[in-house]
Write a structure and sequence with these properties.
The strands form 6 sheets. A 7-stranded mixed β-sheet has the order 4-3-5-6-7-8-9, sandwiched between helices. A 5-stranded antiparallel β-sheet has the order 11-10-12-13-16. Strands 19-20-21 form a 3-stranded mixed β-sheet, with helices on one face. Helix 1 packs across helix 2, helix 4 packs across helix 5 and helix 7 packs parallel to helix 8. It is α/β, with parallel strands linked by helices. Bound molecules: 5'-O-[hydroxy(phenylacetyl)phosphoryl]adenosine. The site of 5'-O-[hydroxy(phenylacetyl)phosphoryl]adenosine has 20 residues, from helix 5, strand 7, strand 8 and strand 13.
C-alpha cells in the first residue's frame, strides 16, 4: 500500500473507531464529553489531537473488564501485564482481534526473514504476558512449525535447539545473550546451531547488542515491537533486508509523537518524543491515543514504504534520570559500555543522594567479560567513566563487579534505581 492509500484508510478507520469506542465504552464517553469532543469532529487525521489520551491508569481504574467494548461472551481471550505495583492491566481480544494479531505478527516474522515451513523456537514467556502466545499465533499463521518452549530453563532451551534444529528463535535480546553465554560456558559453539534468524523484542536493545548477537550465533537479528495495551508483539516489525528499525503497521495503528514536556504539542517526523497509538481495527478493546511512555521518533518507511518506521526506543519517560540537570537514559550508558570490549552489557544504575549532599550521584555497576584480568577491568572501568563524561557530560562512579554478579532475568532487563535518597 502506498502512503496515500494508508492515510485515507486511516481516516476512515479512525472515524469508525472513535464512534465505536464512544458508543460502547463508558470511559471514552465520559472523557470525550469532558473534553467537549464528538467522534464526528474528526474530519481529518490531524483532528485526532483534539481527543483525550488513554493511560495505563485508565485501564487500572476500569479493572478488570470495564474498558471492553463487547460482551464477555465475545471475548475469546484475555492477557494481563503484571505491572510493578497494584492491579494488573487487563486486555481482551475477540476471535477477529486474535486473527488480526496473528496476521500482523506473521507479517513481522516474514519481514524479518522467517518463511512458511521453517521451524521456529519460541522462547517468549507463555501465559498472561502477550509475548509467548502472540508470537506463537503469528508463527502458526505464517505456516511455520512452532516449538512452544516459553522462557526460562536455559539448559532445556539449549537441548531443544540442538535436537530440533530450529531455523529461527523468538525471545528477548537479553535472553538470547543468556542462552549464548550458557552455550559457551558448556563448551558449545552458538555459531554451530541451525539458527539463521532471531526476532527479538519486549525490551530496548541497541545496534551494538544486535552486532554482538549476530556474531555470537551467526544469525540475522531483527526487532519486533509492541505493547499489550495496544495489541501485544507485532505493532511494528523490522525488515531483514534493511535492518533499519521497525515499520509500524499503519493500516492497524495510527502513531503520533508528542513532546514529552508538553503533550499538547505533536512533533514532526524525525523528532524524538513520546509515542502514542490509536488502534484502527480492534474490537474488544479499542484504544484511543494510548500513551506508551516510550521515547522514539517516526521515520519514513523504507522496505515497506507505506508504513513509517520507528527509531529505536531511546528510553521511557518514566525511566529518565535527571542527574544534576542532565537528562539521561539507561540505553545511553549501554551504548557506551558496549564499545568497550572488556565490558558486558549487564549493568545496573543506582541513583543515590548520600546523607548531607545536595546532589544525586550515579553509580554504574557493570559486569566485565569472562576471562578479563583485574588490570583490564580497572582500565575498562576508567574508560567507561571517561566516555560517560565526554558523551553525556556527567560524572559518575563505576563499579566493575564480578562476571555473573548482577541479577539476570529471562524476561525483561531490569534496571534498578535506588531512589531512597531522592528529595
Ligand atoms: O513486551 C510485547 C512484546 C512481546 C513485544 C514480545 C515484542 C516481543 P508489554 O509487556 O506490554 O508488551 O511491554 C511493552 O515493552 O512499551 C516498550 O517499553 C517495551 N518494548 C516492547 N518491545 C520493544 C522493542 C510486550 N522492540 C513495553 N524495543 C513497551 C524496545 C520494547 N522496547
Amino acid at each position: 500500500m502506498s502512503r496515500d492509500q494508508i492515510e485515507s484508510l486511516q481516516l476512515t478507520r479512525l472515524q469508525e473507531t472513535l464512534a465505536y469506542a464512544y458508543e460502547r465504552v463508558p470511559l471514552y464517553q465520559r472523557k470525550f464529553d469532558e473534553a467537549g469532543v464528538r467522534p464526528e469532529d474528526l474530519k481529518q487525521v490531524g483532528d485526532l489531537a483534539r481527543f483525550p489520551f488513554t493511560t495505563k491508569e485508565d485501564l487500572r481504574a476500569e479493572y478488570p473488564f470495564g474498558m471492553f467494548a463487547v460482551p464477555m461472551s465475545e471475548v475469546a481471550r484475555v492477557h494481563a501485564s503484571s505491572g510493578t505495583t497494584g492491579r494488573p492491566t487487563v486486555v481482551g481480544y475477540t476471535k477477529e482481534d486474535l486473527d488480526t494479531w496473528a496476521t500482523l505478527v506473521a507479517r513481522c516474522l516474514r519481514a524479518s526473514g522467517v518463511r512458511p515451513g521453517m521451524k521456529v523456537h519460541n522462547a517468549y514467556g507463555y501465559g498472561l504476558f502477550t509475548g509467548g502466545l502472540g508470537a506463537h499465533g503469528g508463527a502458526e499463521k505464517l505456516g511455520c512449525t512452532v516449538i512452544p518452549m516459553s522462557g526460562g530453563q536455559t539448559e532445556k532451551q539449549i537441548q531443544l535447539i540442538e535436537d530440533f534444529a530450529p531455523d529461527a528463535i523468538l525471545c528477548t535480546p537479553t535472553y538470547l545473550l543468556t542462552i549464548g553465554d550458557a552455550m559457551l560456558h558448556r563448551g558449545l559453539d552458538p555459531r554451530a546451531t541451525s539458527l539463521k534468524y532471531a526476532v527479538l523484542g519486549a525490551e530496548p536493545w541497541t545496534q551494538e547488542m544486535r552486532h554482538e548477537l549476530e556474531e555470537m550465533f551467526g544469525i540475522k537479528a531483527c526487532d519486533i515491537y509492541g505493547l499489550s495495551e495496544v495489541m501485544g508483539p507485532g505493532v511494528a516489525g523490522e525488515a531483514v533486508e534493511t535492518q533499519d528499525g521497525s515499520h509500524i503497521w499503519e493500516d492497524h495503528f495510527r502513531p503520533e509523537i508528542l513532546d514529552p514536556f508538553d503533550l499538547s504539542r505533536t512533533l514532526g517526523d524525525g523528532e524524538q518524543g513520546e509515542l502514542v497509538f490509536t488502534s484502527l481495527t480492534k474490537k474488544a478493546l479499542p484504544i484511543i491515543r494510548y500513551r506508551t511512555k516510550d521515547l522514539t521518533a517516526l521515520l519514513p518507511g523504507t522496505a515497506r514504504p507505506g508504513h513509517r518506521r520507528m527509531g529505536r526506543i531511546s528510553g521511557r519517560t518514566d525511566d529518565m534520570i535527571i542527574l544534576r540537570g542532565v537528562n539521561l537514559f539507561p540505553s545511553q550508558i549501554e551504548e557506551i559500555a558496549l564499545r568497550i570490549p572488556e565490558l558486558s552489557p549487564h549493568f545496573q544504575l543506582e541513583l543515590t543522594r548520600p546523607a548531607g549532599r545536595r546532589m544525586d550521584e550515579l553509580t554504574v555497576k557493570i559486569e566485565p567479560r569472562e576471562g578479563t584480568t583485574p588490570e583490564q577491568r580497572r582500565h575498562a572501568g576508567a574508560t567507561l567513566k571517561q566516555q560517560i563524561k565526554i558523551h553525556i557530560g556527567s560524572s559518575c562512579h563505576i563499579d566493575v563487579v564480578e562476571p555473573g554478579a548482577l541479577e539476570r532475568s529471562s524476561g525483561k532487563l531490569r534496571r534498578i534505581y535506588d531512589r531512597r535518597n531522592e528529595a
